[in-house]
């Protein structure tokens, strides 16, 4: 299992400190962001490329283009700018998230957006990681729907799914598509009082034995079916972001996940 780290694991660390921590933890695959923390709008792409090279890490993705499925207004320009940045900083892919405000997006509009974005990605040698969001208000909740639109758009050469264990659980999904998955995000949820339909990013912590999202069974299913890509930790909860020693906490959750998957195998 190839572990990766998303910068949101320790957003208070500088880019260089995050890369250095990743290497101390034995991780070479990392993700940077344009929100928490906003690396894209605070660092020149060449600076990011140099820092990654010096640390010996590979940038598997930038999080995220939003809302990728509404190809209007300033989105085309933002998409091209973010893709330019990704190519210049050495990132391999862009994470693409759908509109998440309760607005319904027609399948035809989704297909159109995927078709337009495919050209942007191909021109720059990037992959697009389409991440369905399982929230009840999301305009794209399930992976099968995303794949159907990708196929209609003729984008199989450039698009892969992003399987997020949190969103897989929220959407009530049971199907796995390992052969079409390019990245897996994992996070835990341990609050026993929150209902599934009320689960939010703020509840997402590091994975441990109290996890309610079935991270380990999801990972076992993906790996058993042939998934061999990165598995990246992506906690959103403030209690994780505020940890005095994020490195120790990440080491513990990495050991828990690795041993849990290995023991089952």
TrEMBL record:
Pfam families: AP_endonuc_2. This is Inosose isomerase. InterPro entries: IolE/XylAMocC-like (IPR050312), UCP036778_sugar_epimerase (IPR014621), Xyl_isomerase-like_sf (IPR036237), Xyl_isomerase-like_TIM-brl (IPR013022). It comes from Limimaricola cinnabarinus LL-001. The keyword Coiled coil does not apply. Residues 21-257 form the Xylose isomerase-like TIM barrel domain. It comes from the Bacteria. Keywords: Isomerase. PANTHER family: HYDROXYPYRUVATE ISOMERASE, XYLOSE ISOMERASE-LIKE TIM BARREL DOMAIN-CONTAINING PROTEIN. One of its GO terms (molecular function) is isomerase activity.
């Amino acid at each position: 299992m190839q572990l990766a780290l998303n910068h949101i694991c320790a957003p208070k660390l500088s880019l260089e400190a995050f890369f250095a921590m990743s290497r101390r933890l034995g991780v070479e695959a990392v993700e940077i962001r344009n929100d928490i923390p906003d690396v894209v709008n605070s660092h020149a792409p060449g600076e990011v490329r140099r820092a990654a090279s010096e640390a010996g890490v590979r940038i598997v993705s930038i999080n995220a283009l939003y809302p990728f499925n509404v190809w209007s207004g300033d989105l085309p320009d933002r998409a091209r700018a973010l893709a330019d940045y990704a190519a210049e900083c050495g990132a391999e892919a862009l994470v693409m998230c759908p509109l998440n405000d309760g607005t319904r997006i027609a399948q035809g509009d989704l297909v159109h957006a995927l078709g337009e974005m495919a050209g942007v990605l191909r021109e720059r040698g990037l992959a697009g990681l389409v991440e369905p969001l399982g929230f009840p208000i999301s305009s794209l909740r399930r992976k099968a729907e995303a794949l159907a639109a990708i196929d209609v758009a003729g984008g199989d050469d450039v698009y892969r799914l992003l399987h997020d264990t949190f969103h897989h659980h929220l959407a009530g999904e049971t199907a796995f598509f390992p052969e079409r998955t390019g990245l897996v995000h994992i996070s835990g949820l341990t609050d026993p009082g929150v209902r599934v339909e009320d689960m939010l990013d703020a509840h997402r912590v590091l994975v441990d034995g109290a996890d309610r999202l079935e991270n380990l069974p999801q990972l076992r299913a993906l790996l058993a079916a042939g998934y061999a890509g990165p598995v990246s930790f992506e906690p959103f909860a403030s209690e994780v972001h505020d940890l005095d020693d994020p490195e120790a906490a990440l080491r513990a959750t990495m050991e828990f996940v690795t041993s849990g998957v290995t023991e089952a195998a």
